User: Fold this.
Amino acid sequence: MAYDYSIIGKRFKKAREQKGMTQEALAEHLDVSNAYISKIERGKTPLNLDRLSELCVVLEETPEYLLSGANSSSQDFLRHEIMDMLEGCSPEKIRLISQVIRPIIQYKEDK
Assistant:
């Protein structure tokens, strides 16, 4: 399974901001550089399991949420995942995505 580190990075950033932490505070807590935290949040560097575990403890998030968007408190994680992917897309790209998914949504399944 391939991971989209840019989406994972957005989840890390969102979790950090929800904790009211700056990149500097998180970096200091983990004894890493600010640049390293920035690279994680921009999806420019992969994480090893030890670092993932440390981040989960500090940010009080589950690895499942940070890696895949699955959140045990939310049955709607795929909706949030799609919304995260759409963030930052150009209007043209959003129109194209809309054209692709509209027939799927309108399709009536035989039951």
In short: The chain has a mean pLDDT of 86.
